[in-house]
Design a protein that fits this description.
The protein is mainly beta. The chain has one domain: outer membrane lipoprotein receptor (LolB), chain A (Clam). It is 14% helix and 40% strand. It contains 4 helices and 12 strands, in the order αβαββββββααβββββ. The protein starts with a helix and ends in a 20-residue tail after the last strand. About 8% of the residues have low confidence.
Length: 213
Amino acid sequence: MLRLAMGLLVAGPAALSLAVPTPALAAPAANPAATIAQAVTALRGIDTMRASFVQRSEATGQQVTGVLSLKRPGKIRFQYQRGYPVLIISDGKALTIIDSEVKQTQRWPIGKSPMGALLNPAKDVAQYGTLLPSLDPHVTNIRVTDRMHPEYGVMTLSFAQKAGVPGGMELVGWQTVDAQNRRTTIILSGHQYGVELGDDLFRYVDVRPGGRH
């Protein structure tokens, strides 16, 4: 289970692609830079967000659900369904993955994870983003990679045009492909913006002897 969670968040190295399957390829955007800038505006326009998610592993066929909470700057929480022993938290500085089944905790800086593309769009999406062909004219796919640090991973974010949301684009999901070509897909739904999210929601306290707070 920890392996599946790590496939979602880290790469060694990894590649990510379209999260939402749709029909035949649309023509490329006339102005890729403007489209990427719109996606950056959409991400930066989110102060807080809560959404349901479905996580699917192509290799194992496993599917789990949960709730994603996002708060800027840099905070995120993946709360999985009851009975699934993984919790993923970013406190704005580092990502922590906790697997209670195997009693294992891993922690590393946000900047060394593909999740940096989501948590720090002003830096990653704008500077390292590449607009990809879309299967749907209403869906935008942006692959983000730091070519100087391929070990940090690659992430392709998928957005859908939607009126009334920050920047007019809504993040609808992403898909990871790890070094062994294992795919993990995240699809978001039921987005809520501007919800009250306390900082304690994004803080993990390790109660084990010598644990980190």
